[in-house]
Design goal:
Layout lengths: L6 E10 L2 E6 L2 E7 L14 E6 L9 E8 L2 E4 L4 H13 L5 E8 L2 E9 L2 E10 L1 E3 L2 E4 L5 H15 L3 E8 L6 E4 L5 H13 L2 E10 L2 E7 L5
Parallel strand pairs: 3-5, 9-12, 11-13, 12-14
Antiparallel strand pairs: 1-2, 1-4, 2-3, 4-5, 5-6, 7-8, 8-9, 10-11, 14-15
Length: 224
């Protein structure tokens, strides 16, 4: 996926989870943060960030904050990007897919994708990963009961004879591995391990990141 008219600025502060103050061309600019996670290790005062113009009519912020430099690493932090990127990648990930249906109602949840195959359904839930330390990535960066619910739905899908995948899109390049963040949300890690034992595929891929693009890269080892 690609962004247009990307500009670079300096992060100043985050008054709340929806907005950030960024120095752009010497002036303080209010931006929309396209990630409601904590991102405390990313949005630090003085960090270089990347912005793209907002397009929704009548909005109060002129720019969306989409990426940040953490040391020498560029991290995309647009929470809407993982689904768009997986949508482009879906038929590469599952070459047997005849169709790709987003926002698929299954059980009591709306899962991100249903890939329809000749032999049945392949249900996929996509999670974007931005938490990294020393090349090791983890998810989530804050407790998320909704994520646990989605994993339970994937387990139910396998029990009903479908294929199911929890797909973790790591929004950066050149990482060592991926693991659930048991320190932040033990229940998510426990449910992810139960899902793997039940037959849900756990996949993690890194990304090629530039200021104006995000593309699926290579598989990353999953440590459960």
């Amino acid at each position: 996926m690609e962004y247009r008219d990307v500009v670079r600025g300096r992060f100043l502060s985050r008054p709340n989870r929806f907005i950030a103050l960024v120095e752009l061309d010497g002036a303080e600019t209010v931006c929309h943060v396209k990630n409601t996670g904590r991102c405390r290790e990313l949005l630090t005062p003085g960090a270089w960030v990347y912005l793209t113009p907002g397009t929704a009519p009548g909005r109060k912020t002129a720019y969306d904050l989409i990426a940040v430099e953490k040391g020498s690493r560029l991290i995309n932090m647009d929470a809407q990007a993982p689904n768009r990127v997986f949508g482009e990648f879906a038929r590469t990930f599952d070459p047997q897919a005849l169709s790709v249906r987003p926002e698929y109602r299954f059980g009591a949840s709306r899962l991100d994708f249903c890939l329809e195959r000749p032999d049945g359904l392949h249900l996929v839930e996509v999670k974007g990963v931005t938490l990294e330390e020393g090349g090791h990535t983890r998810f989530p960066d804050a407790p998320m009961e909704r994520g646990v619910k989605h994993l339970r739905e994937l387990i139910s899908a396998v029990e009903q004879g479908h294929r199911a995948t929890a797909f973790f899109l790591i929004q950066m390049a050149n990482v060592a591995d991926f693991a659930p963040n048991d320190d932040t949300h033990p229940a998510f890690g426990a449910t992810l391990r139960r899902a793997a034992a039940a037959g849900v595929r756990i996949a993690a891929y890194d990304c090629r990141v530039t200021p104006d693009s995000l593309t699926v890269g290579s598989p990353v080892p999953v440590r459960l």
